[in-house]
Amino acid sequence: MIAVLGLVVGVVAGLLVRPEVPAVVEPYLPIAVVAALDAVFGGLRAMLDGIFDDKVFVVSFLSNVVVAALIVFLGDKLGVGAQLSTGVVVVLGIRIFSNAAAIRRHVFRA
Amino acid sequence: MSSEDGTPGTSGNPLRRELPEEVAAQAPAGAGEPGPPAAAPEPGGAPGLTGRQRLVKGLWPPRVSRAQLIVALLLFGLGFGLAVQVASTSDDDGALRGARQEDLVRILDELDDRTQRLEEEKQGLEDQRTELENSSDQAEEARKQTVEKERQLGILAGTVAAQGPGITLTVDDGKGTVESDMLLDAVQELRAAGAEAIQVNGVRIVAGTYLTDVGGGVAVDGNKISSPYRFKVIGKPQDLEPALNIPGGVVQTLEKEQATVTVDRVGKIVVDALRPAKQPDYARSSSR
């Protein structure tokens, strides 16, 4: 419950504060958000499976974000940033979908 | 969307707990649909509890624990980033903000192309406009010239009034001895001296004018006029007056007939007698 509150508070704060995104972070923020979403869905599924562990969640969350940003950064340096970030989004999207499917089975039994 | 603090799983060994999380994120990629729902892993979880029960239990009642707080913090970060990103993308310049360098270059190229095309179109249209203006200017000029020419010809043909320097010639024929040929002589003399517009007693004298004798006077183009005959003549006064006054000329001839003749130079003569423009019956313009 607290975690849900945290998410809601975060969204509200982001909308209210509307901070200027630093130019350095700008290209990585979308990918990082998608990676974090992936981690959150993974965590939710683990919880429904009854195997949730906060340490694992934290590590996977942070590593997901960092790795995603790193890949984009590397792609930019190699000159294939656009393609690579597309690839990352595709992979993360597939994982989110599969996790969502597992969650759906738990919640709706279907 | 919430998370449980994992208490049901704590009984398992750490390896057991760590692995499924990773697997959980990846395994479904393979096991997406094919396996029956029952195949969803239900390892080391709380005995007898379904996922749905666990979800409800995690959501309510709220428990404050370290794990909850950490997860809340992370989710706060996620929500914050999400909102910021969404907000920045939905700015008016959001389309360009989120764009990558290559995309920006491409967009810039497209804009340049578009600008160039529009410039060319504008150039073409401006050329066209200039052309039209020129041609309308030319048409206007031609029209003006035509009007001017019509006016000049109208003076000659007697269809428009004329004004300018000139002389008046008054022939007072008290005895009735002046005949049409004398007046014709006067007209011829005036024409020879460069008279440009002539009228006598309100009748315009033009190229086709004829003078005839009628009882008690003279008819000009069929209009009877009588003494005194007042000529209004536009021309160069210095030429016209001497032409009338030369020895043996018009004035002397008329005076010999007992008529009183006066010639005055006038700065401004108005010849306002008009005659209608007549379409010639047979003669047609051979120009063009």
TrEMBL record, chain A:
It is found in: Cell membrane. The chain crosses the membrane at residues 29-48, 55-74, 80-103. The keyword Thylakoid does not apply. InterPro entries: DUF1290. Signal peptide: none annotated. The keyword Glycoprotein does not apply. Keywords: Cell membrane, Membrane, Transmembrane, Transmembrane helix. One of its GO terms (cellular component) is plasma membrane. It is a multi-pass membrane protein. Belongs to the sbp family. This is Small basic protein.
Automatic annotation (TrEMBL), chain B:
Residues 22-31 have a biased composition (Low complexity). Residues 119-132 have a biased composition (Basic and acidic residues). Residues 1-13 have a biased composition (Polar residues). Belongs to the UPF0749 family. This is DUF881 domain-containing protein. Residues 1-50, 119-145 are annotated as: Disordered. It comes from the Bacteria. Gene3D superfamilies: Protein of unknown function DUF881 (3.30.70.1880). InterPro entries: DUF881 (IPR010273). GO terms for cellular component: plasma membrane. PANTHER family: UPF0749 PROTEIN RV1825, UPF0749 PROTEIN YLXX.
